[in-house]
Amino acid sequence: MRHNFLLCGSLGWCLEIFWTGFHALLAGQFTMIGKTSLLMFPIYGCAAAIAPVYRKISDVPAVFRGCLYAAGIFAAEFSTGSILKHFGICPWDYTGTPFHVKGVIRLDYAPVWFVTGLLFEKILTKSS
What we know:
Layout (H helix, E strand, L loop, with lengths): L1 H25 L13 H6 L4 H8 L4 H25 L13 E2 L3 E2 L3 H18 L1
Antiparallel strand pairs: 1-2
Helix pairs in contact: 4-5
């Protein structure tokens, strides 16, 4: 489990840097600087929970697994974001975007979390 936690934390950081760098490019910033926060590592590391969940639901169609993962990611993002926001250290703020909930989740990211959950599922089951 520790190996998967470290793998998910690292992969999450890399994906976030890619995501923010890509958005910088779309905003006309050709340096494509991507960024993340040290606080994100343990949050992304919690995606290691996907492996034991997958073992229990592996025979369920991927569309339902992806929906379950997206819901789990939203729950984790909302709870951790709310706690970090309470202490004034939340590294993200979606307040100025459409479809946000209390500035800590964006409902329009559901497809991203759907695909990300299935991606982590494949990576974690290959590494086990």
